[in-house]
């Protein structure tokens, strides 16, 4: 039992620390702009208005950084120390598997309840455009 709870606890500690840091940065922004609502709104808008770019692993790598996937993941020891490792993703998973997870983590988790070593899905929906998903898949699949 302890063996199962430990990674989940460590994971939450990691996410909590990072979200506290992110919260502090947001607070600073809000104080500077003095319009709290506007910060959240403009962030959302810039996501959905981004122009489609051609699909590639290097774009995927940029998007991985841009969307701060490393808050919960690690690659080559970089990122969330106790997070879910994405090293060798291309040797472990198919492109279709990675893609399904990015499209709808909840649904995908339910489809493969034994694939992740945890009892519940901890990855929130990522709100990604299809060209972003395809580039992230290329990048993660290239990690062999
Ligand atoms: C809040 C934490 C969190 C964020 C942010 C997050 N993930 Fe995840 N992700 C997880 C967790 C935890 C898992 C393990 C399975 C689950 O709980 O869904 C996972 C699973 C995955 C998987 C399946 C890996 C496998 O082999 O089983 C992929 C691929 C993935 N994430 C990619 C991404 C990408 C790309 C981003 C950024 C756009 C991202 N994740 C953002 C927490 C997160």
Can you walk through the features of this model?
- By secondary structure, the chain is mostly helical.
- The chain has a single domain, classed as Cytochrome Bc1 Complex, Chain D, domain 2, CATH 1.10.760.
- The chain is 60% helix and 5% strand.
- The chain contains seven helices and three strands; from the N terminus they run H-H-H-E-E-E-H-H-H-H.
- Strands 2-1-3 form a three-stranded mixed sheet, with no helix packed on it.
- Strand 1 and strand 2 form a beta hairpin.
- Helix 3 crosses helix 7, helix 5 crosses helix 6 and helix 5 packs across helix 7.
- The protein is globular and about 35 Å long.
- The protein starts with a helix and ends with a helix.
- About 16% of the residues have low confidence.
- It binds heme C.
- Heme C binds next to helix 4, helix 5, helix 6 and helix 7.
- Which ligands appear in the coordinates? heme C
- CATH architectural name: Orthogonal Bundle
- The Rg value, from CA coordinates, equals 16 Å
- Major sheet, described briefly? 3 strands, mixed
What portion of residues belong to β-strands? under 5%
Spatial sequence of strands, sheet with the most strands: 2-1-3
Strands, total number: 3
- Can you count the helices? 7
Helix-strand makeup class = mainly alpha
Uncertain runs with pLDDT below 50, 5 residues or more? 23-45
End-to-end C-alpha gap:
32 Å
The CATH fourth-level homologous superfamily: Cytochrome c-like domain
Domain count, please report it: 1
Q: State the helicity in percent bands.
A: 55-70%
